[in-house]
Amino acid sequence: RRVLFRSRLVAREFRVPLIGPDEEPELIRLQTARELIDSAEEVAIDYHAWTDEGDSSQRRVLALALRNELLETYRKLAASAGLRLAGLLPRSAGLAALSEGDSPEVIVGLGHGWREIALARSGQALLSRSLAGTGWAQEVRRVLASQGLTAPGAAKVRIAGGTADDVAALAAVLDSPPAQDPIPDRKSTRLNSSHVSESRMPS
Q: How far does Cα 57 stand from its chain's mean position?
């Protein structure tokens, strides 16, 4: 599997009615297609869905779309190395895999040339955003506010990677200081979120 930058993917968040598991993929594919600029035939779509805590008759959905030409490029890169591409994993899934328990956690990943936030529960990404520019810490607070998670103790906030200055910058805009974790070695991290593929969604 290869990890994808957030900028390579188009993400859409929405709700759909609770229906049977056989009908759900097609419904989500159609809803995702309505919200994309590209046609559904030009992209590979995958998704993660879970029951809405506020309305058990609804399912919340995080859908991800990748242009087919990018998918084909990754296949060719794998083939040139004598490998078969098994799947593509969004980086937010790797961040979400760091979450523990059933309570929401906010994981802020900081690396060379990239910053990303993932709202996660039980290892699954519920929301993800790229963070750009010098105002990234304020953007983290805005994401928390949009989800009603700014009160102390509403959600555990952790930084993966980054420096002491990054921790200080984030602590300055939060009511509770964030915990700092090293980004784990990829060989020891179990990524249990969905990977972008063509197998789950009918074309």
A: 24
Cα–Cα distances in angstroms (integers) from residue 123 to residues 85, 93, 134, in the given order: 23, 8, 29
| pLDDT tens readout for residues 12-55 | 889 999 999 999 999 999 999 998 888 888 999 999 888 888 89
Structure tokens at 124: 């699954």
106-121: per-residue pLDDT in tens? 999 988 888 999 998 8
In terms of C-beta density within 10 A (0-12 exposed, 13-18 middle, 19 or more buried), how is residue 9 classed? buried
Degrees, nearest 5: CA angle 156-115-135: 85
From the list 146, 114, 107, 109, the residue with the least C-alpha distance to 132 is: 114
On whether the CB atoms of residues 165 and 159 are closer than 8 A, the answer is no
pLDDT of residue 148: 86
Separation of alpha carbons 155 and 105, rounded Å: 5
pLDDT in tens, 95-106: 888 888 788 889
Which pTM was predicted? 0.67
Per-residue exposure over 110-147, b if at least 16 CB sit within 10 Å of its own CB, e if not: beeeebbbbbbbebbbbbbbbbeeeebbebbbebbeee
